Known about the structure:
- It is a single chain.
- The protein is an all-alpha fold.
- The chain has 4 helices and no strands.
- Helix 1 packs antiparallel against helix 2 (25-80) and helix 2 (25-80) runs antiparallel to helix 3 (84-161).
- The radius of gyration is 59 Å and the shape is rod-shaped.
- It starts with a helix and ends in a 6-residue tail after the last helix.
Amino acid sequence: MGIFSRLKTLVSSNVNDLINKAENPEKMLNQLLIDMNTQLIESKKAVAMAIADEKKLERETANQEGLAQEWEKKAMLAVRAGKDDLAREALLRKQEYENASAEYRKQWEAQKAAVDKLKISLKELQSKIDEAQRKKNLLIARAKRAEAQQKIQSTMSSVTGNRTAFDAFDRIAQKVDQLEAQADAAKELEDLSANNDLEKKFAELEKSDDTADLMLLELKEKMKALPEKTE
């Protein structure tokens, strides 16, 4: 029943080292499954040999029983022929084969019981390897998700931890806002100054027009008051 011990030894002795040294869980799991399947193949060969031995014992048991029956028939034949001495010899030979048959049967039954247990163990081993194969995919997915989360966390720590660059960026943004505000103010003052000059020009123009009209009116009034010239 120790034919599966090598697989147990392999897993128990190496798995901790593999886990501690593993940088790539997927690679480690694949290698473990390769080792398991390799040992499974060896175990199947050992079980097949045990089954072959069991079948051989079964055939030998049947053969010994068949020979015992043959010598019993010969003893009967000798009795019918009145040859009791030959009959006794035949019966002694029959007894030998029966004893041998009983011994072979005992070995065969023990071997058959062992083989039955081996078959059960082999089936359990196959089931565990199948389960390991299914779990492998889940473990790989979990490992990749954990790796992605670590990268995200590392990136977030880098982003949130590097405040110097972000503070400088904010200061530059404030400076740009200030420059834009100053430019807008200068433009507004320039527009205001231009409007004042224009209004001043029109005011002077309006003022000059009124003055000329008044002066012309005064001149006409003055001329009316003068005596008319006689020829």
